[in-house]
Amino acid sequence: MKLMFRFSIVLAALLVLSACGDDSKNQFVKPDGPGPWVYVDVYHTTKQNPLDYRLEKGQFGYQGVFGFWRLFEHIENNGYETSYVRDLPISRERLDGFDVLFINLVSSDLPDFSDDEVAAIIEFVENGGGLFVIADHTNVYRHAERVNKFLVPMGVEVLYHIATDQPPDYAIAGLGWILVRDFVDHPVTEGLEMVSLQTGGPMDSRGSGVAFTSTCPEGTNSSPPGCSFADLWDEEDQFGFYGDWTWNGDADAEPLGPLEVVTAKQFGQGRIVVVGDQNMFGDSWLHWGSNFELAVNGIEWLANQESTERPLRTTRPFGVNIGMYQPATRYNGGKFSGDSFFGFFVNANRDLGVTMSGRESLNQKDDVLILTDVSAEMTEAEVNSVRQYLRDGKKVMVTFEADEIRPQTIALLKELAPDFALEVDGTTYDLDALVEDVEVPRKEGKFPGTSDYLAINGLNLASFEGANTEPYLLDVRSTWGDAFLQAGDTDLARIKEVDGGELVIFIQDGFFRNRTFGDYLRAPNSTGVIKGEDDRVASGYNDAHSMQFRLLDWFKSEHASEE
Fold first, then answer.
1. pLDDT (0 to 100) of residue 32
2. Short-list 322, 214, 291, 343, CA closest to 551
3. Beta-bridge mates of residue 266
4. Residue 527: what pLDDT?
5. Nearest-5° angle of CA 280, CA 282, CA 287?
6. Which H or E element spans position 354?
7. Closest CA relative to residue 512, chosen from 321, 373, 364
8. If we measure between CA atoms, which residue out of 287, 274, 124 comes closest to residue 206?
9. Spatial separation of the C-alpha atoms in residues 282 and 207, rounded to whole Å
10. In the chain, what is the straight-line distance between the N-terminal and C-terminal CA atoms, in Å?
């Protein structure tokens, strides 16, 4: 029940499941072997479960975009055994032998927890089991009133609020897509830099919180408060289950930050983790910031595996690992509106041979580093870290739109490619000249793509300004390095060996932006013209989606040849 709730309602009604369902996993499996064993409850919720939903090419349904397939694929590939229980309620007997009980965001369209189930869950934890509960904002899907039946007796209460925070440091989009940076030292928070919720909620455990929203200055009493606050659910809103996104001035009814959004609590001999958002572990958002690390840390701690020599968070995600560095781009990979790159980020993770991550730091973990439209000044240390990727023989991709190149991008290029230049209308502009805005003419229409690197035969490349407009290309060229991607007689990207690695510079990245990719929850339009806002059938430009997949194929083939 997010900002995109309308799509969720339609898809829930249709109950269209992805083709990734595995019938062999739909049967209850009693633990047999060392494990660790995870009991996945699919009786009280089917939402976004990893059996029925996963993000893959052609998947634009809400449940599939935010399915939990990548998370469970990772733990199953690394020694964890899972039993998905769809048709049976939770009981003492069925929990016997399991290390962790995983309860995803429950829903009012499926059975509520019976008194026997509540007792079985509490007893399971009290006797040494681990309980992982995914909560969300307010009482969406009536989840809070249901899970609180067993959480409150164990000292945790899911609140009927939305956890809000303030951009740009603590939120990406509006007040609900937040960036959480304040952590308590704990095995569940080991290695975390930032985690991100997409309209989630707080809880109260009276001292067991391990992740918090920003702290409000003492004495805050004005609205808006300029800091995080808990937005109380308007119970008359039975559609989106939202509040009014405004602090009402009563800190008792709407507490001010810090708000607890992750709990890690001991209870009896067992352990509990509660996380205040479902989408943060979905396939499209799992690898944003440290969401992945939080998820696997939580499972590991609940299974009493936190002292393992090879933590799950350090185990490489599958496929070629591609990092999009976010601080230098003002988090444009996570903004679903405006002229940003959220569609590009989501689309990359539709390729099951790729793990695209929204990176908070430059730590050389990835095979490929991407910087999209650098708009924040990079420090000397950051630039040196980028160069280290190249020195390690890796690929670095820098993108911008040639008619809107930012001073911060120019500063980075001066460090990485000081001889870079653009040619417009027969005039060559070096980086110093590009500091001034250069008027770049446009070529109307679509043009066949050509490349010696990418298999793009049959694709027409173009970009868009917005709804109901014809595609365009910038009429620009460069002689720097070699041609990487062209459309007609224009350059889209160049490539050159730098410091032992390969630097790819996209001088026309408009077709990577939201304006070209369209709505990440709607399939792209094969005609190449974005329809108006009233057209809910298709959006975006299919050839741009396909071109990105060809780029990913090149990354994958190059990475495979290096192994």
1. 92
2. 322
3. 271
4. 63
5. 70
6. strand 354-359
7. 373
8. 274
9. 28
10. 42
Q: What is the pLDDT of residue 341?
A: 97
Report helix, strand or coil for 146: helix
Peptide bond into 524 cis (omega under 30): no
- Do 320-562 and 5-314 have the same topology in CATH? yes
Residue with the two structure tokens 């609590």: 265
- Tell how far CA 364 is from the center of its chain: 20
Max intra-chain CA distance, the chain: 79
Question: For residues 146 and 114, is the Cβ–Cβ distance under 8 A?
Answer: no
Question: 396 φ, ψ to 5°?
Answer: -125, 130
* Amino acid, single-letter form, for residue 345: F
The pLDDT of residue 438: 87
In terms of DSSP bridges, do strands 81-85 and 37-41 run parallel, antiparallel, or are they unpaired? parallel
Q: What is the pLDDT of residue 231?
A: 97
Measured from the Cβ of residue 321, the count of other Cβ atoms closer than 10 Å reads 18
Residue 381 vs residues 361, 363, 385, 392, 410: alpha-carbon distances, Å: 11, 11, 6, 16, 17
Q: How far apart are CA 229 and CA 216, in angstroms?
A: 8
Helix 143-151 vs helix 115-126: crossing angle, to nearest 10: 50
Please give the pLDDT value at position 423.
97
Residues 6+ apart with CB under 8 A from 448: 458, 459, 460, 461, 487, 488
CB 319 within 8 A of CB 493: no
pLDDT at 445: 84
What CA–CA distance (Å, rounded) separates 112 from 351? 36
DSSP state, 478? -
pLDDT of residue 126: 98
Q: State the CB neighbour count (10 A cutoff) for residue 468.
A: 12
**Six-digit token string for 515:** 């304006």
Compute the C-alpha angle 164/170/175, nearest 5°: 35
Instruction: Count Cβ atoms below 10 Å from residue 385 Cβ, excluding itself.
Output: 17
* Of 439, 426, 436, residue with least CA distance to 474: 439
Position of tokens 């290309």?
473
d(CA 120, CA 431) in angstroms, rounded, equals: 67
Separation in Å, CA 409 to CA 326, 447, 560? 14, 27, 30
Q: Give the distance from CA 215 to its chain's centroid.
A: 24
State how far the Cα of 254 lies from the Cα of 170, in Å rounded to an integer.
Answer: 18
β-bridge pairing 229-232 and 161-164: antiparallel
Class of domain 5-314: alpha beta
Domains of the chain by residue range: 5-314, 320-562
- Three-state SS at 301: helix
Each residue's pLDDT tens digit, 392-434: 999 999 999 999 999 999 999 999 999 999 999 999 999 999 9
Closest alpha carbon to 313 in 273, 365, 261: 365
| In this structure, CATH architecture of domain 320-562 | 3-Layer(aba) Sandwich (3.40)
pLDDT of residue 531: 54
State both tokens at 239.
Answer: 């559609």
> SS3 for 311?
coil
* CA dist., res. 196 & res. 172, Å (int): 9
Is 182 within 8 Å of 260 (Cβ atoms)? no
pLDDT at position 317 is 95
Whose tokens are 């996570």? That residue is: 334
Residue numbers of the chain with a pLDDT score lower than 50: 1-19, 534-537
